[in-house]
């Protein structure tokens, strides 16, 4: 039986949301030309890869209900304590968000709800559910066929976790309105995810202990603070889903304050903690003395003007990625892991093959009409104006209000490296800024006494705790490389509000 128990069939209507602002100009075509000619397209999640995608003949069968399976393994993609399906997001009649959830293997009612959003922008959260922190783990058997088995260290050990394909157009999520209905900013993502959490709470009010944690990875360094703040403000205004209180926010190898973080591209490429010089001294000096100041100026101009069509943001996106990331990319090293030249293409291909297999797809209740892509390029393109926006300013009010914040980073990642993440956390203006910066770096101690990482933490009065954690020996997708350590991390964060 489903651990989610009896499900109420009536989903009340939400009050009509504000109309979604549309872009004034159709810039996507132009951007595509600029990018393909001058920029190696970097995705803050995983590099794009052309899959042969499975497109079944039938139109989506119209059944938007969740399904559960009676299978203890992950043979068809869901364990016994898993559930998946769609919610209609009320901003649009035709926008459906796909979710995949696994309840706590201990006790659902005594564990919080953890929302997970993968980055990209445009990458499916199923990638995380199937190869990072989910209940299932995909790998290839001897014949090369993609299969899944139960993961040893899923984050659903002591939490009820829901992985959401968002925004519309990502993974199995879709919109019938086409390109014009795709999201293009973290603000719109926040609106949609607030609506999603309403839906979740209406449908599964007993699926947790009343506590909510919002986690995101990579480009999710925009999403988690934005969604968290939208939820936090909604709670204060009495407009949040009843019975679900925000407790904490987490970002893994995220991009949150680009102006600070891009400074560490040259630094990490040349002076990372692994002693690998991925770029030359000449490149390093040229970046620091010449390219970086120009990049910073452009990011600044982007953030000085909140107009969503501010072309300075596109300018910064193209310039900074070309000037500061390309030399590293040309070294041939994996942008997500300085230790290797091998990329993640096959991991993504394996997950894609697995979730689009007919039997698995049916068990996952994924719409037949949707062509699943690990990372959707159209969605990515929509976000190029949002890329350089900083959203760390959303955090101090939440810390004041008692929300715990955890910023963590696998320390082998180049693209959203730990140095840049630590730097923006140290620069964050909040009541505990000095306390945090004066705090000693402390080990993140695993139950057997070994340090799985190290970092800093501070807390002011009854406010929330801010923690930064560097995870030793992990790349961009930290839970993929260090599943046990990151499971310990999330368990500790939920139990104590910190990890040290
Ligand atoms: C402690 O556990 C970690 C993670 O499994 C492992 O890497 C480490 O070697 C262990 N340390 C000792 C002293 O057993």
Question: How would the blueprint of this fold be written?
Answer:
Elements: H1 28-38, E1 82-88, E2 95-102, E3 113-117, H2 126-131, E4 136-140, E5 146-150, E6 160-165, E7 174-175, H3 186-203, E8 211-217, H4 220-236, E9 245-252, H5 258-261, H6 264-271, H7 281-304, H8 311-330, H9 345-356, H10 358-363, H11 377-382, H12 395-400, E10 404-410, H13 418-427, H14 433-438, E11 442-445, E12 451-459, E13 465-471, H15 478-481, H16 483-496
Parallel strand pairs: 3-6, 3-8, 8-9, 9-10, 10-13
Antiparallel strand pairs: 1-2, 2-6, 2-7, 4-5, 11-12, 12-13
The chain binds 2-acetamido-2-deoxy-beta-D-glucopyranose.
2-acetamido-2-deoxy-beta-D-glucopyranose binds at residues 446, 448, 450, 484.
- Main sheet, how many strands, which sense, barrel? 11 strands, mixed
Which ligands occur here? 2-acetamido-2-deoxy-beta-D-glucopyranose
Percent strand: 15-25%
How many β-strand stretches? 13
Number of helices: 16
- For the CA atoms, what is the radius of gyration? 21 Å
Residue share in helix:
25-40%
- Give, in order, the helices and strands: HEEEHEEEEHEHEHHHHHHHHEHHEEEHH
Spans with pLDDT under 50 lasting ≥5 residues?
1-26, 47-69
Structural class: alpha/beta
Tertiary shape: globular
Average pLDDT figure = 87
In angstroms, what separates the terminal alpha carbons?
Answer: 38 Å
């Amino acid at each position: 039986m489903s651990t989610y128990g009896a499900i109420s069939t009536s989903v009340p209507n939400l009050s009509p949301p504000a109309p979604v602002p549309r872009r004034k100009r159709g810039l996507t075509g132009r951007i595509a030309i600029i990018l393909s000619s001058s920029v190696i397209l970097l995705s803050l999640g995983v590099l794009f890869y052309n899959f042969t995608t499975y497109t079944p003949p039938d139109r989506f069968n119209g059944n938007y209900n969740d399904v559960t399976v009676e299978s203890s393994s992950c043979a068809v993609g869901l364990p016994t304590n898993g559930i998946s399906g769609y919610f209609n997001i009320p901003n649009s009649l035709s926008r459906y968000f796909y979710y995949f959830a696994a309840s706590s293997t201990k006790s659902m009612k005594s564990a919080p709800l953890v929302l997970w959003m993968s980055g990209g922008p445009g990458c499916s959260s199923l990638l995380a559910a199937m190869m990072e922190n989910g209940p299932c783990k995909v790998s290839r058997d001897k014949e090369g066929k993609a299969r899944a088995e139960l993961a040893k260290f899923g984050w659903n050990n002591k939490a009820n976790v829901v992985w959401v394909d968002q925004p519309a157009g990502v993974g199995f999520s879709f919109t019938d309105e086409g390109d014009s209905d795709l999201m293009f900013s973290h603000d719109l993502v926040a609106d949609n995810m607030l609506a999603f959490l309403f839906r979740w709470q209406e449908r599964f009010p007993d699926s947790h202990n009343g506590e909510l944690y919002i986690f995101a990875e990579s480009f999710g360094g925009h999403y988690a603070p934005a969604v968290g703040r939208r939820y936090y403000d909604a709670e204060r205004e009495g407009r949040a889903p009843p019975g679900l209180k925000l407790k904490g926010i987490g970002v893994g190898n995220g991009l949150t304050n680009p102006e600070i973080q891009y400074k560490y591209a040259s630094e990490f490429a040349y002076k990372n903690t692994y002693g690998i010089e991925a770029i030359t001294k000449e490149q390093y000096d040229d970046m620091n003395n010449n390219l970086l100041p120009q990049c910073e100026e452009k990011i600044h101009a982007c953030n000085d003007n909140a107009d969503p069509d501010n072309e300075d943001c596109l300018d910064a996106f193209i310039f900074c990625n070309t000037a500061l990331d390309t030399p590293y990319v040309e070294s041939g090293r994996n942008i997500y892991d300085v230790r290797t030249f091998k990329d993640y293409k096959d991991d993504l291909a394996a997950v894609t093959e697995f979730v689009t297999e007919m039997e698995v797809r049916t068990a996952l209740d994924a719409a037949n009409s949707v062509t699943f892509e690990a990372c959707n390029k159209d969605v990515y393109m929509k976000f190029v104006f949002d890329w350089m926006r900083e959203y760390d300013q959303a955090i101090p009010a939440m810390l004041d209000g008692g929300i715990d914040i955890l910023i963590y980073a696998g320390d082998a990642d180049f693209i959203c490296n730990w140095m840049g993440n630590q730097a923006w956390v140290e620069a964050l203006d909040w009541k505990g800024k000095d306390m945090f910066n004066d705090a000693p770096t402390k080990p993140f101690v695993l139950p057997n006494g070994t340090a799985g990482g190290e970092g800093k933490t501070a807390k002011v009065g009854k406010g929330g705790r801010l923690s930064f954690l560097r995870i030793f020996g992990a790349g961009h997708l930290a839970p993929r490389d260090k599943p046990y350590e990151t499971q310990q991390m999330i368990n500790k964060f939920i139990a104590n509000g910190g990890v040290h």
